[in-house]
Amino acid sequence: MKLLLKNRGALLLLILNLFLMFTGIGLIVPILPKFMNEMGVTGSIAGLLVAAFSLTQFLFSPVAGRLADRFGRKRMIVSGMLVFALSEWLFGVANDTWLLFVARMLGGVSGAMIMPAVMAYAADITTPEERAAGMGYINAAISTGFIIGPGIGGYLATFGLRVPFYIAAVAGLVAALATFLLLKERSSSTVQEEAPSQQGPRISLWTQLRMSYREPYFFSLILVFVMSFGLANFETIFGLFVDHKFGFGPDDIAFILTFGSIAGAVVQVTAFSWILKTFGEKRVISACLLVAAIFVLLVLFAHKFWIICAFTFIIFLATDILRPTISTQMSMLAKDQQGYVAGLNSAFTSLGNIIGPIVAGVLLDANVNAPYVLASVVLLLSFLLSVRARKGRKPGEKKVPAIS
Asked: Whose CA is closest to 377, among 297, 323, 308?
């Protein structure tokens, strides 16, 4: 494919940045139970800590998407990786809860800077025919980094509870330097020429969200939100859930999550494009939502280590296919607004990731099973919503139906 031959270097750099960023985000998962004990925080505080990352990412994402369109993708990616390195270092040196919140909020800013820029850059270097494959590679980096992050964090934590964050900070600096030296920026004339059509009128974040229902990709944004909300309930408190219910340690948690991530990444790289072409985006979205809903609920009835591994594997496989499918659907509808739509995508993801962890933390303090019951219900409702929208679409209709 031309994507692999002509733009291999650029794609690898994009993958490296996203992999490192989401690895850094996932580092905390197996370590969080020990952090809670060491600093005396409750499940509710842990949920707020996770939500703090998503809150700042949510607030800054639409702005970052427009900045990526105006000033160039490369500048945003490099700046975002520097902020990421700072956030990881702060988390490593923190001895007070408030400093942990500061570190996570800086991490949210870095995510908002990097995600839209990388998605837009990937759209720039791929043709419509290559888009699904390109998004598959990009999202494989996201999924692999986020879920392998706990595995790396669990292993590095054996050398010290804070060692993983120091290493992540150094890796962020190296990635920023490599991107600065090796990634080619689009010419300034091209960026300025396209900026007016991509930017549109300057409106506030809340106005962008309120007006997004008019866009053909609004239904995809709704799915992004509900998927993020349901999965946040699962992923945020997974380490706390198995620690409280089964007494699993960081090594056990790291192994389960790492095992679950491998198949999803392999499928995204090797079979995602075929799956999408064979079954279509809407069927794939519905199937993945249903599978995720069922197996999140089944986790509550698992009592053996290998069963939990198997169920987690299926959940991550479904979500690893679901995420790039939705991204591809929106990217195809975005046309010349790639940066702007990528920013909205990130904002809706963050909105689900803000509410999900807060609710999950509160429910965890009340009952250890409650977060997963809610996650399953939300994913099931999303499945029903996707089926209804698919049936209501007329043959040959190009637009995704809006939700009234």
From this structure: 297
Task: Look up residue 88 and give its two tokens.
Answer: 């990881």
**Residue 288 token pair:** 């993945």
Q: What is the pLDDT of residues 286-295, one digit of tens each?
A: 899 899 899 9
Write down how long the chain is: 404
Phi-psi region of 31 (alpha: psi -120 to 50; beta: other; left: phi over 0): alpha
Structure tokens of 187? 């010419």
Single-letter code of the amino acid located at 101: F
Residue from 381, 337, 132 nearest 216 by CA = 337
328: Cα separation from own chain's centroid: 14
Tens digits of residue pLDDT in 314-352: 888 888 788 778 777 777 766 666 666 766 776 787 788
| DSSP state at residue 96 | S
**DSSP one-letter code for 303:** -
Q: What is the pTM of this model?
A: 0.68
Q: Which two tokens stand for residue 294?
A: 């069922």
* pLDDT score of 369: 87
Helices and strands, counts by H and E, the chain: 18, 0
**Six token digits for residue 158:** 């054996």
Q: How far is residue 79's CA from residue 174's CA, in Å, rounded to a whole number?
A: 13
- Between CA 79 and CA 190 the distance in angstroms is 21
For 397, the token pair is: 């209709």
What number of CA atoms fall less than 13 Å from residue 376's CA on the CB side?
13
Question: Token pair for residue 197?
Answer: 């059509």
Residue 266, judged by CB atoms within 10 A of its CB (0-12, 13-18, 19+), counts as middle
Burial of 270 (0-12, 13-18, 19+ CB in 10 A): exposed
Given a contact cutoff of 8 angstroms between Cβ atoms, the answer to whether 375 and 231 are in contact is yes
Phi, psi of 237 (to 5 degrees): -110, 15
184: left (phi over 0), alpha (psi -120 to 50) or beta: beta
